[in-house]
Amino acid sequence: MSGYPWSILGIEETREKSAIRKAYSVKLKTMNLDEQVQEYAQLRDARDYALRLAAQPPASPPRGAQPDYDDAYEDDDYFDELEWHDDAEFEWQIERRDFVDGYEGGDLGDAGLSGDELAAAAIEPPELPDGYDELHAILFPGRQHSDEGLTAEEYEQAEDALKRLIAWAEDGDLNRHGSVDYNLAEMLAAAWPRSAPLVERANVAFHWLGEAGGLDERPALQFLNARTQGMRFHESVLEEDHPLHKAWLELSRPGKASMIDRLKINRNQIDKLLLAIRGSFPELEALLSRERIDSWEKPASDVVSWIVQRLFIVFVVIQALRFCASADDRAPVQPPLSAEEEQAIRDEGKDTIAAALFGDGFSYDQLVETDPAFAAQLGTMIDTLVRAKVLDGRLVRPLLRNRMLAARERADFDTLLAIQAVHLEWLKAASEAGGDACGDVLSGSFSGGAPEVSAETEERERALARDLLEKKLLTLPSRTGSTTYQIPGWLVDAARKDTGLSEARFGEILQDPEDSERCGVEIALIENMLSVPSRVPIETLRGL
Amino acid sequence: MIIGIDLGTTNSAVAIWRDGQSELVPNALGELLTPSAVSIDDDGQSWVGRAALDRLATHPSETVTSFKRRMGTESKATLGKRSYTPEELSAIVLRSLVDDVEAATGERPTGAVITVPAYFNERQRRATRRAGEIAGLEVERLINEPTAAALAFGLIDKEEREPFLVFDLGGGTFDVSIVEMFEGIVEVRASAGDNRLGGDDFDEVMVKLAEPKLDAADVLDRLPNDRRAALLQLAAEKTRCALSSQNKADFRIAVGDEEFTAEIDTQEFEEAAEALVRRLRDPVIRSLRDSGVDVESLSDVVLVGGATRMPVVRKALTRMFKRFPNSTVHPDHAVALGAAIQAGLLSDGEGLEEIRITDVAPFTLGIEIGMDDAYGGRVNGIFSPIIERNTPVPVSRMQSYTTSEDGQRQLKTGIYQGEARQVANNVKLGELVVPVPPKPRGEVEVEVRFTYDTNGLLEIDVDIPETGFHKNVVIVDEEDKRSRKEIDKSRKALEKLKVHPRDEQVNVAAMQRAERSYEGFTGPVREYIGRSLDNFKAALEKQDPRVIADARESLLRLIDEIEANPPI
User: Which GO-annotated molecular functions does the record name (chain B) (predicted)?
Assistant: First the structure.
């Protein structure tokens, strides 16, 4: 016997297909396949290799050499043919496959073609399908890629050429159909975005979306299918009853978002839309107004608008208080104060509020000294309060708490634990208060006011606030969009035990920030996390 | 005795290996095909096959068909006082097939080879196995329908065959297999399919096409949903079959005393069915690509399944392959005949030389993983294939994975079957939980080996070289955990169903058919059928077998005639 694969088949080297099959059959019938899995695989490989050798022209390969699969697996070359430009903005060079043998099946194994037959097939000029060249000429004006859209006239011609091409394919056998399918996908992908209006028709004819998301989806189709889905999303989001319709309209208007826009449109919807687009259809972002997206996303303006909103609320409260005060006839009329006296009272007021926020004995000047940037943000608010003679620190607390949560982003491990401990108390308090309070804590907006906590916790909160202030962690802008973090399995299990929820339900709640049971789940997660913080990845500590 | 059963969406058949050949066993009505239909009323009286199908028109709420399409799901059908799972309904059909074999041979079979679509996933296969067990059968093997058909085809002339293609379009499922035969080996090179495509879908297209033309919206809207659906479905099937032999056919329904007809011609039906015909192409291309066989080198295209009789399908095939398909095997019989050959092989039946069948895993098998994306984030729910689809089975493949978190103590992942990059779009087969030593991420290597055997059993070995940890898991589906008790419970419940004595079944079926026909016509024709039906009932009272047989025959002849040429 003469080495691989003949030794495994148990025969002398031969070019007889039937002898190879016979040997295979004899060997196979002696095997118990389920117990000889590896031997079976080897036997098959040997047979396939032997059959390939038998199909080759008689230049004998080096004996005993391991199988050289390179020339056999045509598919390996497949990906090389699709070259990506270096500055790849979803473009690629198109390489047309022969329309006769273009079908990807290739001839693995024993296609039964001799070398001569192959040569004969290669000499035949490829049959060019009706409409192909025309379509190519329209999509690549001057043989160049173009970003220009099709004119109405060009579109009509292209549609017509495409229809003829599809008809030609459908009239043909699998090979012809396969080669048109392949080449058309390559051409439309390469000509994108000029080819956009043609994709849907081709998709229907060749059932391209059927391959979407599959393991063996062709690269050209991965590209086109994502865009087809994007175009469909675009169409549906323009319908009035689409849940993100308003957000889409808002983001497509030019110019910056105004205060009123912000009050009218739900921030969540904007985030959801951007997340959906960026995750699935990045090309659609170009259809939106850059400036407006920026204005919704820019953290600085976010903080400003946040403060303005707060101020508005405070203003209403103050007006209400004033109204009550003036309505009270028995209130003694106070003599007007001198400017200095007034200034002194104001300073005192500022100190009162600063102490309410950062602990007894902490003055407003200290605040300015420790973190001037944050003091500037907080100062506007405190100033308004003091001028209105409302010395209630609780009105500023929502802003402070929002910043404290945002500080998780950069806090070190121990600080993180402290923040989370206080965070937990807020959640608990909010959960007791019921209503939207919990959602406010979860989102960090505290738009319904900050939940009241026990005096002891309040003390801890003040100490923490001061600590964070000193570490300059309060000036951070809060991040928009979503953060990703993982929750370790043990933590989920422990929290699930505490809440008594099923695995499926628990997962559901984690997916939906607006779920009514979300609060309880977060409390359980944070509680368990704080019991063994060392087991928790730091991203999770920051994220939760 | 082991029997071979083709448990189809529309029809089922049973065959045995006897005297050196495979033969089909007729049912109590003398027919070789038993419709896969079950009807049960409030009293627990049951009908199977033709009689049940006829009851679909008269008692739609007590009758189900096409339950094979729901195999492997939890969807139940309520008939009479109880709801039945798809496997219980299948078991009722299986039991009647077993009765047929017992009547024909005098021996009650104990084991069976049951066929399933090649593209059935693990869940659907397990449900089929359970159906057999509920029917009191030892399921010796599940074999793929196209493989069975190939066996039957191969045994006709016992020739060597270059790769050929089996195109199996049944009532509810579609399979394509590339098969090669030589030296007593039947080698399946690749299978692909669509387990949601079949003749039923063409019926739906027919209904959509004909309904607006009927001009019966007002009347139809007043009907209960199930009755309306049954009415349209039966009419669609009839029209579709009629279009196989003529260019025009009437879509006809009768509601109460009113009749509605719409004329459908071949061309408009073909246009309406175009989207379905396109879906036939994908699995063909996939199977050819996976097997590495060229269209030109296919030696034959073999048609299996009732829906391949449709001219629209044949036309598409001829265009795809540029040749006329082969119909030497009977498209409705081949699968059961092949199953009986396999049964014969298992019981060392006489007249069979040793034949080895080697098959492939039709789906990719793998686990769920997470991956880092380009922006430093993490994407979860990615499918990592371990055994690629169309790999010859048995097969054993190993892949290495690493941990994804610092200090991770446990690796928990799902086991999936399917072709989608996202696990969410694949079928989940089970879960894998393995303890790992806590280390920084990426430092612990975990080797996962999948072994898939010829019975479709998936075994998983997990090794952690660092700790020497080893775990072996045999994947058991959630539903499979249901104990034998559940299966026994189902079996007992089914045993309580009342079945018509075998010698009466012909009469019961004749009566159901006459009743259905009565409903289907109006005016004098209806009256005429009614009178004949009364005559038949009177004959039954006489209890004289010969009188009854005569009356039955004249009743059926009458209906045959009326239905073949409906008076307008």
Answer: ATP binding; ATP-dependent protein folding chaperone
